Amino acid sequence: MNRIVPAFRPPRQEQHERIFIEDATARYKARMITASGYIYSIIRIYRQQGHKFNIPSPRSFYEHFGIPRSTFYRALIQLEKAEGIKFRWEPIGGISMWWGEEEAPAVTPPTAEFTPEPPEPKYQRLKQLPEDIRAKFEQFIRAEWRKAKGEEIRSFHRFVEKPADFQAWWQKFQAQPRPQAMLMPATEDESAIAKSSIFLEESERISPDKFKALTEKLRQRRIK
């Protein structure tokens, strides 16, 4: 009886292929791999199995790596449904992505290995702000000014009337740390709520207060 010899031997443990981020980017631009394969390669390059890759802003990720916004979210859904790779993601407090079995249940803060570029300002003047955002913006500025100068702002409108003054304070307001509650691990229902809002523009996404109200309703339904 003739012995069947395989055409190719399994690669050695110290295989020669060591893909770098530049290689993955070049292959994606050359259309050698899909957006799903590109994102999966990025996560595997940055993180080992089970460790979350946390990004404060999804936009900073897909713009940095040159992936169209709609393509990015479609690729995440395709990866999540793919069998065998166990890819998962959560859009809570930015976005977290990981592959394989999750080892650390708590979301760890972003590391310095990926620094997102600051987004371009959407609002140029105070009058462009929605009413709810303007109220929080004014509260933030008054509190910061009181803390720094020990005095109150007489006319808030005049205080930020100049575009340069508005932009300076707006950047400080945007740079505030996110509420700690938004950084906690999400339940399946909470993750579903957040994922349902990812296709909106980032400025239209669900606010922390609305998110808290929706999750509270879900908990009440479970109790009933």
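That was protein one. Protein two is written in the same sequence-then-structure order:
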Amino acid sequence: MPQVLQRKEPILYIIENEPELLSGLKAFFEPQPINMHYYIHPQAFLNSYDPSGPGCVLADLTLQGINSNELHLILSEQALCLPLVLMASLRDLPAHTDMLNQGIYAFLEKPLHSAVLLGTIKSAFEYSQKMRGYVEHIEKLTSREKEVFNLIVTGHTNKIIAEMLMVTDKTIEAHRSRIMHKLKARALADLIALNSDLKGRFL
């Protein structure tokens, strides 16, 4: 049976290899009611972070050791509930904007604007909490319900699903009804949107 985590307070993980900028970020966030962990090296972060979330990772685009793209790939596999926000200088942004289409939550241009920075982190926390809720709902499904869910969101009708799984149409209708109830979905569009947010994970 899947373990449902009880911790609900998000953590802000900051990875910055420039000591002066890291000190500035510490000074900015410490007065805020935010639980924070700071790292100079991304590997130190990966060795100690909680991949089940909720929270947010704020990292420099030009990391040392593990680059930001590698960090993003690792988080995509291990920590669906931890959005990644990257800090970048204006000269570095044009070469990396395609990463937004690959699931990076946001880019922040250096020098950082305090209101934009704080607003982005708060928004990322809300997104993280939403994703964590989705995961907990998905984990309530049985293995068969996950199988049916996957077939539904990929465009298969109840009749086709019944033929594929060698069961009756009524059995699929019952599975579909339970899936809608467990995921708090009102229509097929809600299931498709949920699957898109989860990037097909857990199915």
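The first helix runs from residue 19 to 29. Keep this in mind for the problem set.
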